[in-house]
Design a protein that fits this description.
The chain is α/β, with parallel strands linked by helices. The protein has two domains: about 140 residues, Medium-chain alcohol dehydrogenases, catalytic domain (Quinone Oxidoreductase, Chain A, domain 1), CATH 3.90.180.10; about 140 residues, 3-Layer(aba) Sandwich (Rossmann fold), CATH 3.40.50.720. The protein is about 25% helix and about 25% strand. The chain is built from eight helices and 13 strands. A six-stranded parallel β-sheet has the order 10-9-8-11-12-13, with helices on both faces. The chain has a five-stranded antiparallel β-sheet with strand order 6-3-4-5-7. It has a two-stranded antiparallel ribbon with strand order 1-2. The mean pLDDT is about 95. InterPro entries: ADH-like_C, ADH-like_N, ER, GroES-like_sf, NAD(P)-bd_dom_sf, Zinc_ADH-like.
């Protein structure tokens, strides 16, 4: 089969080639990939900045895919040939709290991902693709939509009338704006692009802040919230901006730390965090 193979770190080392078509073992599905969606994780893996010591080479990257079952292994009961399915990043995390070894079973590294004609998914890891969505649409759900939902609902426990700040306008952020709005929350969005801010306002955000033209964006958030700050903040940037995230979140508020677009390390000012009794949780 044709597949994109990462032979070493760096985009120039991601090459289209031929590899053996996998055969489904007991409990597994062979899925003909219809579409994939790209997440920052995929780029970070290719760039060698995402747990590089765990990345096998050559690697078929990209975790999120949708496609059609074309063969099944022995004992499969949940799906049959012709069913449309989604992959799921954490192939063994099915419910409850994550186990310590969940990252060892992630698609797109260390397990082969979906940037190929076919991929293997265990039937317990597969999720039926929504019938009203194309493969292209369904492929955006696993990381982006679930991360947004988990941040807002499981961790954030967001309620109607509360205020959420969503950083950026990538996949997770776009889903978060729509989900939070549907739940009755008020959404403030940040972006470096006025055009993107206009777009997320059309999706439901009540206010937008351009952090390039307003570098002290936390002050603007406080103005928009009568000095209180937001109930929940979805931080996709990481880096030193986490201190502004703390400042923009209300006392006893919550920060869902989702990404590290601007850096994986940070000098965190502990006193505001302590006095404001802010909860920060990593979301993976």
């Amino acid at each position: 089969m044709k597949a994109w193979l990462l032979k070493d770190f760096g985009l120039d080392n991601l090459q289209l080639g031929e590899t053996a078509t996998p055969q489904p073992k007991a409990g597994e599905l062979l899925v003909k990939v219809g579409a994939v969606s790209l997440n920052f994780r995929d780029k970070a893996i290719v760039d060698g900045i995402y747990e590089p010591h765990t990345v096998p080479k050559p690697l078929i990257p990209v975790s999120d895919a949708a496609g059609t079952v074309v063969a099944v292994g022995e004992g499969v009961t949940r799906f049959e040939v012709g069913d449309r399915v989604n992959s799921h990043l954490y192939s063994r995390w099915l419910d409850g709290e994550p186990g310590p070894n969940e990252p060892d079973y992630c698609f797109g590294s260390p397990l082969p991902g979906g940037l190929a004609e076919y991929m293997i998914i265990h039937e317990d890891s597969a999720v039926g693709a929504p019938a009203n969505m194309s493969d292209e649409e369904a492929a955006t759900l696993p990381i982006a939509a679930l991360t947004a939902w988990y941040s807002l609902v499981d961790f954030g426990q967001i309620q109607a009338g509360q205020t959420v700040l969503v950083q950026g306008t990538g996949g997770v952020s776009i889903f978060a704006v729509q989900i939070a709005t549907a739940l009755g929350a008020k959404v403030i969005a940040t972006s470096s692009s006025d055009e993107n801010l206009h777009a997320v306002k059309r999706l439901g955000a009540v206010a937008g802040i351009n952090y390039r033209t307003t570098p002290n964006w936390a002050d603007e958030v406080l103005k928009l919230t009568e000095g209180k700050g937001v109930d929940l903040l979805l931080d996709v940037a990481g880096g030193s901006g986490i201190n502004q995230s703390v400042a923009a979140t209300k006392a006893s508020g919550r920060i869902a730390q989702i990404g590290f677009l601007t850096g994986q390390t940070v000098e965190l000012n502990l006193m505001p965090l302590i006095f404001r009794q802010t909860t920060i949780r990593g979301i993976a």
